[in-house]
Amino acid sequence: MNIAFIAHDKKKDDLVGFAIAYEHVLKEHQLYSTGTTGQRIMEETSLDIFRFKSGPLGGDQQIGSLVAENKMDLVLFFKDPLTAQPHEPDITALIRLCDVYTIPLATNMATAELLLSGLKRGEFKWRDIVKGQNHGENQS
User: Residue 25 in contact with residue 120, Cβ under 8 Å?
Assistant: First the structure.
């Protein structure tokens, strides 16, 4: 599975701790991240992560592009709901794309833990259910 990590500044420590706790599960998958978040996780774990630009410089949109191409399976985006983000439209667009393409999105640690627990047990079947759906694309 392709899994993306994103975290706002005040949530980076939480996501790093989460990655440490679930490293045994995450190491079996292709991992992607926005720049700083990925760097922080790699410094604290043995995980290999493909890093995009930082979120405000387009990293959220780069991950969104993979979602739109149906090349992302899970997004862990630890958001800070108490701090205004200058790139809020990019964040909203990413969340919308996850909804459009039926990509599980965790915006907090509790949801992320449930998703990773299901992943660990092999319980993710949504790809089989939505396989072949065109998500609004033109059919010829």
Answer: yes
The catalytic site residues sit at 60
Quote the CA–CA distance of 15 and 109 in Å, as a whole number.
8
**Six token digits for residue 64:** 């969104």
Task: Compute the C-alpha angle 22/38/9, nearest 5°.
Answer: 100
* Residue 75, strand partner residues: 4, 105
The one-digit pLDDT tens for each residue of the chain (140 residues) are 999 999 999 999 999 999 999 999 999 999 999 999 999 999 999 999 999 999 889 999 999 999 999 999 999 999 999 998 888 888 999 999 999 999 999 999 999 999 999 888 887 766 666 655 555 554 44
Record the pTM: 0.89
Task: Write the CA distances from 17 to 2, 7, 11, 22, 69, integer angstroms.
Answer: 20, 12, 10, 9, 30
- Cα–Cα dist 70/116, whole Å: 20
Go through the domains of the chain in sequence order and give each one's CATH number: 2-125 (3.40.50.1380)
Q: For residue 57, give the nearest of 79, 81, 35 by alpha carbon.
A: 35
